Amino acid sequence: MHLPAELRMRLGEIFSADSFAVGETERIAYSHDNSRRHALPDAVVFPTDHAQVEALVQACRAHQIQVIARGRGTNTIGATVPIEGGVVVSFERMNRIIRIDPDSRLAVVEPGVLNGELQQALFSHGLFWPPDPSSSAQCSIGGNLACNSAGPRTVKYGSPRENTLGLRAVAGNGEGFRCGTYTSKSSTGYDLTRLLIGSEGTLALITEATLKLTPKPSAMRTLRATYANVDAAARAVVRIMAQPVTPCALEFIDDVALKLAHAYGGDSVPLAGALLMIEVDGEADTLDSAVEAVCAAARGAGMQKLRVAQSAEETRALWSARKALSPAQRTISPNKINEDVVVPVGHLAALVNGIKQLSAQHDVLMVSFGHAGNGNLHVNLLPRDEDERERAHACLADLFALVLSLDGTLSGEHGIGLLKREFMPLALEASTLQLMRNIKTAFDPDGILNPGKLLP
Ligand SMILES: Cc1cc2nc3c(=O)[nH]c(=O)nc-3n(C[C@H](O)[C@H](O)[C@H](O)COP(=O)(O)OP(=O)(O)OC[C@H]3O[C@@H](n4cnc5c(N)ncnc54)[C@H](O)[C@@H]3O)c2cc1C
Q: In which residue ranges of the chain is CATH 3.30.43.10 found?
């Protein structure tokens, strides 16, 4: 317990007894996230409004005590692990949807609202917020913004950076501020909203967000195409993205992943050189022509079979390969290493073929699947024992080098956190990193916000 007595007293003034915990049970509960890393915080607080967050940061700054923002701890990169102790700020009780304005297509929310709760509230308005991580039932909007988390729909609708109008936040200097607008256009100074998105709680604590909403299309169709090999599938991705009907999901699964999924899920999972799952949305009366345009682009040399689901049941059946993949991987390797690298779409084939070479060279099972329309692949390394685990870690550096040589980057949606920050100097020039450090100092002069994350 390292909290100075004076700070402890001050926190007792800011927070009611049931919103300020220093007991071991609570500290253990908030010591880890989905990265499986852990470190004990000195205290956990549960603010219910912006003023409390401001008072908290000012008090912690006066005592040089670290402040770690936390949504629901579902991130996979150790981004909420309090590696130097300090105070974990759990936003789970700042969970109000303040207003939904269908006319201006925006929602104002507190950061602790779950992504899934927001989508449900928007449903009756015929609107949705596009970022759709598959953890949406468990993860918070604050976490989504801080990691720029996304999902399959990003290919058509964008990530939190493209779907957030403004923020209210408290910087590491203890000052509250607003950035962005309530408007869909703005050319009023630096774009601090986009800067805070993806900053992993290292610049400011977000206390309110104004989100840009999108009308929900009334119809959707699911397609599944198999290919003789990765190159044929990658060429199809390029063709699909080069025509005007952008699908709302364009997901890739490589042959190794298909074999695993087939062994786990049975014959409903096709065996092929590669597979694309495609979803096309739009209005019911124009959807047929949109689907035909995407089908035409999906067809080409190396395509084996193209199926278009005609019912909800068939749609579920087509997704069986993707559904079987996660449990299939867990069966083989409970401690899989899960990366989410990105390359320009034109380099997708080179990436997947390069991954196959790395898998052979390091003798570690690797599968690639994910958001091909953005060139964002989940590359999972599946070590089965300690030897393989060591080899997998050695392989990681080669994987990142490959991605960077293809003009790609380290992460498309999971973020950097604790686990990838050592690789940042590979991805960014020293001068770029220095500018980032200067920005960090402007927001957080004493470096109390989420230390040890993102910047090397
Ligand atoms: C089963 C599963 C599936 C997943 N699928 C996806 C997926 O499809 N796509 C994807 O992108 N991710 C996915 N994730 C990762 C994870 O769900 C996302 O990163 C999510 O956005 C994290 O939200 P959270 O509320 O759990 O935030 P946390 O994990 O608690 O925090 C994440 C980061 O946000 C910061 N933060 C949280 N709240 C605030 C705030 N109010 N102000 C400032 N900083 C804050 C934290 O400090 C930390 O840096 C998945 C995770 C799991 C376990």
A: 5-92
